[in-house]
């Protein structure tokens, strides 16, 4: 009887261990499903981070993201992952070839440019228009670069056919040369490159501020172009490196996830088999205990049943080892997914920082000209809809060139930064300020009454007049002229910019430190 009780006790313990193992497997299965949810979220955010690199890649990532939201079985999406991998490889090859063509064009145009001294006025106008066009993607930047080099080459070839040096000198329009100089300065200010490239660009900007010859201007323009291309190449390589890393990690996750799914299914089947066998043995033992009064006679059969229980126990231990390995694999996947998530978050933060820098003036830290045009278009559309008062203001620093000439360009930069900060401090949160030119600032004042806008602009003008500038042991007084206008009738943003410029010109003609409204 004691032996029977011992056997019954061992059976109860073994059943308890099997129940605990089944609970452990259920937890592992739930954790596996949770990891799949995390993987889905990672793919979704990855598609956002990679947006804009390639249209087809964007489309496939978008489709994959949609499928992930609807598909419960991740293994069915493996073919789509393979397609995305091929697209990434194709994109790398395509961009490499495009950049190789650009490098050849740069070299050819540079060699031609070295032999010629100037640039025709008409082509300078085309060059200025081209520099004013935005480049939102890498492909657009490359196309604009090729177009810019073509303009250089055309200009130099046209100039080379002229034998009269005086004709070439007269063809160089001084006003257009100044405009190109200002455009290059603005471009350098907005680039915000780090390291040696950033220092070289700032040196070029300082030379442009001091004034250069037409030949030097062309050489500096080409150098800026090369630096822009280098920056573009570095960004492309960084993006490619990021994509390669993500692609490799995704391939690893795909493989390990498939393995985990297969192992989970196999473990589940083995558990069911063991549970069924254990139930059968338990039933046989129970039946035997009820039918056999003489246990000694039933001992051989009971011994065989005990051996089967021991076999089941050994099989259970083997399953526990496999479950442990599966849990470790899932833990590895979790770490890998968390690492990928952090990478994509860092990359997204970097993209956000770059986007923010694109719309900020590097010197004054107010918005730049590109941001002005975007905001003006937005406020114009709101004005069309609601017809609220919408004011546009241009502020110009009086005699700013004399500050640069008398005290140096570092003093001029300090004046620009302090005046920009002073203007911003006297504006409301809904107002907008941008640096429009070298010493000009544009304001947009939406939905402000006549009395309030006049009061606000007067305070700005008077606050700047009271700023305590001191250079080379001399107190320097700085004033500004202000021209302003309002949207009305059939006005467009271009009409407003032109009328604001006229208002500023009239204010400066009437004398410094004045404010003039024009309708």
Structural overview:
With about 525 residues, the chain is an alpha+beta fold. The protein has 3 domains: about 1-50 and about 240-355; about 100-235, no CATH class; about 370-515, Reverse transcriptase/Diguanylate cyclase domain (Alpha-Beta Plaits, 2-Layer Sandwich). It is about 75% helix and about 5% strand. It has a 5-stranded mixed sheet with strand order 2-3-1-6-7, sandwiched between helices. Strand 4 and strand 5 form a beta hairpin. It is elongated, with a radius of gyration of 37 Å.
- Discrete helix count: 15
> What is the CA-based Rg, rounded?
37 Å
User: What oligomeric state do the depicted chains represent?
Assistant: single chain
Main sheet strand line-up: 2-3-1-6-7
How much of the residues is beta strand, in percent? 5-15%
Global outline: elongated
Provide the descriptors you would attach to this structure in a database record.
Alpha-Beta Plaits, diguanylate cyclase, five-stranded mixed sheet, 519 residues, Rev_trsase/Diguanyl_cyclase, elongated, diguanylate cyclase activity, 7 strands, coiled coil, alpha+beta
Question: What would you say about this model in short?
Answer:
The protein has 519 residues and is an alpha+beta fold. It is built from 15 helices and 7 strands.
Secondary-structure map with pairings?
Blueprint lengths: L1 H48 L5 H16 L7 H37 L6 H11 L6 H23 L4 H7 L2 H18 L3 H16 L3 H78 L3 H64 L10 H18 L3 E8 L2 H8 L1 H17 L6 E4 L4 E7 L3 H16 L3 E3 L2 E3 L3 E7 L6 H18 L4 E3 L2
Parallel strand pairs: 6-7
Antiparallel strand pairs: 1-3, 1-6, 2-3, 4-5
Helix pairs in contact: 1-2, 1-9, 1-10, 2-3, 3-5, 3-9, 4-5, 4-7, 5-9, 7-8, 7-9, 8-9, 9-10, 12-13
């Amino acid at each position: 009887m004691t032996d029977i009780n011992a056997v019954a006790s061992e059976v109860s313990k073994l059943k308890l261990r099997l129940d605990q193992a089944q609970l452990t497997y259920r937890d592992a299965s739930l954790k596996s499903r949770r990891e799949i949810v995390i993987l889905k979220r990672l793919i979704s955010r990855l598609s956002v981070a990679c947006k804009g690199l390639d249209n087809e890649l964007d489309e496939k990532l978008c489709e994959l993201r949609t499928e992930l939201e609807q598909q419960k079985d991740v293994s069915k999406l493996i073919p789509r992952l393979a397609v995305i991998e091929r697209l990434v490889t194709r994109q790398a090859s395509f961009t490499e070839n495009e950049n190789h063509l650009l490098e050849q064009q740069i070299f050819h145009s540079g060699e031609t440019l070295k032999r010629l001294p100037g640039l025709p006025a008409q082509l300078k106008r085309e060059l200025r228009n081209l520099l004013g066009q935005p480049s939102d993607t890498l492909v657009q930047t490359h196309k604009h670069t090729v177009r810019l080099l073509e303009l250089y080459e055309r200009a130099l070839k046209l100039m080379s056919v002229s034998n009269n040096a005086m004709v070439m000198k007269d063809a160089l329009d001084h006003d257009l040369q100044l405009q190109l100089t200002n455009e290059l300065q603005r471009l350098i200010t907005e680039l915000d490159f780090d390291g040696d490239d950033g220092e070289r660009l700032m040196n070029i900007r300082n030379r442009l501020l001091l004034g250069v010859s037409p030949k030097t201007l062309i050489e500096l323009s080409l150098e800026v172009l090369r630096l822009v291309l280098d920056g573009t190449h570095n960004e492309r390589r960084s993006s490619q490196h990021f994509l390669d890393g993500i692609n490799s990690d995704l391939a690893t996750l795909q493989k390990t996830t498939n393995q985990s799914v297969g192992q989970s299914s196999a473990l589940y089947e083995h558990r069911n088999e063991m549970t069924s066998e254990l139930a059968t043995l338990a039933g046989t033992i129970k039946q035997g205990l009820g039918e056999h009064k003489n246990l000694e006679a039933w001992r051989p059969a009971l011994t065989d049943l005990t051996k089967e229980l021991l076999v089941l126990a050994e099989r259970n231990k083997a399953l526990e080892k496999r479950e442990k390995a599966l849990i470790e694999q899932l833990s590895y996947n979790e770490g890998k997914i968390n690492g990928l998530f952090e990478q994509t978050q860092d990359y997204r933060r970097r993209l956000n920082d770059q986007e923010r820098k694109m719309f900020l003036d590097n010197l004054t830290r107010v918005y730049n000209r590109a941001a002005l045009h975007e905001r003006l278009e937005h406020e114009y559309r709101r004005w069309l809809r609601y017809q609220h008062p919408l004011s546009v203001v241009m502020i110009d620093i009086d005699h700013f060139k004399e500050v640069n000439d008398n005290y140096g360009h570092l003093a001029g930069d300090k004046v620009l930064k302090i005046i920009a900060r002073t203007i911003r401090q006297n504006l409301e949160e809904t107002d907008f300020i941008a640096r429009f030119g070298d010493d000009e600032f544009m304001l947009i004042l939406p939905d402000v009454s006549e009395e309030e806008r006049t009061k606000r602009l007067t305070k700005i003008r008077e606050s700047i007049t009271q700023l305590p500038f001191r250079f080379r042991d001399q107190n320097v007084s700085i004033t500004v002229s202000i021209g302003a206008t309002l949207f009305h009738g059939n006005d467009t943003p271009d009409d407003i910019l032109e009328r604001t410029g006229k208002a500023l010109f009239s204010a400066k003609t009437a004398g410094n430190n004045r404010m003039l409204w024009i309708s």
